[in-house]
UniProtKB/TrEMBL annotation:
<dbReference type="InterPro" id="IPR038316">
    <property type="entry name" value="DUF5062_sf"/>
</dbReference>
<dbReference type="InterPro" id="IPR032036">
    <property type="entry name" value="DUF5062"/>
</dbReference>
<dbReference type="Pfam" id="PF16691">
    <property type="entry name" value="DUF5062"/>
</dbReference>
<protein>
    <recommendedName>
        <fullName>DUF5062 domain-containing protein</fullName>
    </recommendedName>
</protein>
Amino acid sequence: MKKLKHEAELVKEAIRIGGVYMEKRGAGQFEATDSASNKITAIYRLLVLDKLIQPLAKGEESEPNMKHKLALWISRQLPKGHPLLEE
């Protein structure tokens, strides 16, 4: 698993966009007290359920791997030329 250049920022953006997606889909919403770990897990599982990302292999569902998957997902959603996609 090769780390992306702006992976931490991409994960933050994925949490933000994923939260909006979750609300619009009617799957719930995050509270201010929810941890980043819970948000990452919830968004990852929702995206897998909706078949927007491929699930990790059994035994590979760790927080760093889920973060990486979310970073990859959001990097494909951002428009070309976005500052987080620059090398």
